[in-house]
Specification:
7-stranded mixed β-sheet; 194 residues; elongated; homodimer; alpha/beta; 25% strand; Maf protein
């Protein structure tokens, strides 16, 4: 039974490997920026489905995992991937000393084309950062290609006091939810029945 | 400035490496089982200090990091490292469907021998596990050498619905707190001033 991760994210690959699963990585060609849905949780769900669906159609006989992770500031602003240093700085300034919400949606498409979907939402509590600390973070460059311009796996952890939710969902692939959906989809995941 | 991690834990080494720091691993000879303090948070603090102190004395001119992680079930029972399959099973059964508390204490000893101490406490919410799931987990063997007989970095994550606190503290080295203590101890940690 072939398993495909429809994502180019190296972090997601690492998390899936940690479960001891054999899988192939085939990133979808879905353009996130083109999607019109503005509600963050619905947007994440839609994008996870679009990505899984895109790859599932091209790879019959596979179980496909689609994922999308979005960050929402506590004033409701959607924080996607910053394209410039200035945009990254504004995102970090907005989150400093505050709590962001991370929605990580999953869509698993099984061998019969049936969808198994869910969303893992977590709170991230940021340290109140000085200008010097924000300069440091922007200087590391590690905000690139990360929703909300932060990361929690590595140096970025120094800015995060605590979380409520699933750490792996914040990284980008909520493992507990994935276990549940893969089991529903008939994929043999050791003997755990999530 | 030489930095020493006074712990044999491979998970702690990985977390410290993720911060891009250069350090040496020198496990202390402290016997955890011999320590008389029963209160979990105080016990973790004492052991972190004893480990750091043991290595600091033998390595003058170094900054030493000592750590201790303890798990407490929601009935207050201290769950240390299980020595047998039966003990591991009892620990997992006790935590199934319930919330455990993980105390991760750090003690950093600076070049002048001054202590910088703190504790990171996190809640871990376990799935209600079936007998078959408990069999599976015990069969993986991954409970060995882990306080509370679970782990959150890898397969064990499939049993954990959510956390409140610092994921890295549950793994064994609370990175946010470490940043704060290393900065207090005068160790140059990039430009972040935790």
């Amino acid at each position: 039974m072939k398993l495909i991760l429809a994502s180019a994210s190296p972090q997601r690959k690492v998390l899936l490997e940690a479960l001891g699963l054999k899988f192939e990585v085939i990133p979808s060609g879905i353009e996130e920026d083109d999607h019109p849905e503005p509600d963050p949780a619905n947007r994440a769900r839609d994008l996870a489905w679009l990505k899984a669906s895109d790859i599932s159609k091209k790879n019959p006989g596979s179980i496909v995992i689609g994922c999308d992770t979005l960050v929402v500031a506590d004033d409701g602003t959607l924080l996607e991937k910053a394209k410039t240093v200035d945009a990254a700085r504004r995102m970090i300034e907005k989150q400093s000393g505050r709590t962001s919400l991370v929605h990580s949606a999953l869509c698993v498409i099984d061998l019969k084309g049936k969808l198994h979907e869910g969303i893992s939402s977590s709170k991230v509590f940021f340290k109140k950062l000085s200008d010097q600390e924000i300069d440091w973070w922007i200087g590391t460059g590690q905000w690139r290609d990360r929703s909300g311009s932060f990361q929690i796996d590595g140096l970025g952890q120094l800015m995060i006091e605590r979380i409520e939710g699933d750490y792996t969902g914040i990284v980008g692939l909520p493992v507990y939810l994935l276990g549940k959906l893969l089991t529903e989809a008939g994929y043999p995941l050791g003997k755990i029945d999530n």
